[in-house]
Amino acid sequence: MSPSHSSSSDQSDDPLFPLFAGLYVALLVTAPVMYAVSELGVTESGPLYGAMLVTVTVVTGAGWWVVAAREWVATRLGATAGRWVPGIVGVATALAGLASLGQAGVASAVAFFFGAGAMVLGGVLGVMARTRHTAAVLDGADRHCEFRAGWPEAARNRMVVVVVPLMIGGIAGFAWIYLGTHSWLVTVAQALLPVGVTLLMCTEQREYTVTDVGLEHRMPVARQVFRWAAFTGYSRTDDALVLHRPWRLDIRLALDDLGDPDAVEAAVAEYLRAT
């Protein structure tokens, strides 16, 4: 742990955000364009492929230009839960493409594969937007201490007991596809895999900073801030400093990971009450 009382002006602007935003829009609109082109009687693979390339190139460039000229877009998007909407729209597009296979020709396949790409890219955009928002919020904030910590071993082992069945169920759901069986139960089973991975990642060591705005959480390529109002208090156990949240997993900081647990607790106690 290293104490600090200086302010931060690191905006962590991501120059790739406008480019990714343009590409994301291109992935969504290409399928409708392909459908329109095929409805006009164009069925040869060469012209269809050319239309796809032109659409992706033009829309990506236009989207990049629009977003690059409006830097506030990412910051405002990152301030709300709406940052995850792009990923959800990608999922909906992929499902629509899957449901229409054999009915809308090549447009269905494009919708499925490009929708899957938009799902991933939409999630990346959400993380980028949250990072920009965090940088803006913490610009000039008072930073009390910085440290790296994860969950204590006992709590992590308990989480593993919960996560392993979820991951097995998720892997089984994906494997079930090869048996030719498709149902909503298989889809639910597949969703268990990312849920399990996410829960396990919550127990890993992360970089934290106690600021007057909230608790900053740093990952290798992303940042976010947990406002103090989001916590109901904190407690200290034999092996962890626990920051309690009403609707999400508590943040557990292993005492063994903290160079000076008392100093970290004192910093947190300035903003949270002990429970």
The radius of gyration over CA amounts to 23 Å
- Shape, please? flat
Strands in their spatial order, largest beta sheet: 1-2-3-4-5
Q: Major β-sheet, in short? A: 5 strands, antiparallel
What fraction, in percent, of the residue positions are helical?
A: 55-70%
Portion of residues in beta strands equals 5-15%
> What is the average of the pLDDT values?
88
**Tally of DSSP helical segments:** 8
Number of strands: 8
Task: Write the topology of this structure.
Elements: E1 2-3, H1 16-39, H2 45-68, H3 72-78, H4 85-99, H5 106-138, E2 143-149, H6 153-176, H7 184-201, E3 206-211, E4 214-219, E5 222-227, E6 233-236, E7 240-244, E8 251-254, H8 261-269
Antiparallel strand pairs: 1-2, 2-3, 3-4, 4-5, 6-7, 7-8
Helix pairs in contact: 1-2, 1-5, 3-5, 4-5, 6-7
Tell me about this structure.
- The chain folds into two domains: 2-8 and 143-269, no CATH class; 16-138, no CATH class.
- 32% of the residues are buried.
- A five-stranded antiparallel sheet has the order 1-2-3-4-5. The protein has a three-stranded antiparallel sheet with strand order 6-7-8, with helices on one face.
- Helix 4 (85-99) packs antiparallel against helix 5 (106-138).
- It is 56% helix and 15% strand.
- It is an alpha+beta fold.
- Residues 3-12 have low confidence and may be disordered.
- The longest helix is centred in the middle third of the chain and has 33 residues, at 106-138.
- It has helices at 16-39, 45-68, 72-78, 85-99, 106-138, 153-176, 184-201, 261-269; strands at 2-3, 143-149, 206-211, 214-219, 222-227, 233-236, 240-244, 251-254.
- The chain has eight helices and eight strands.
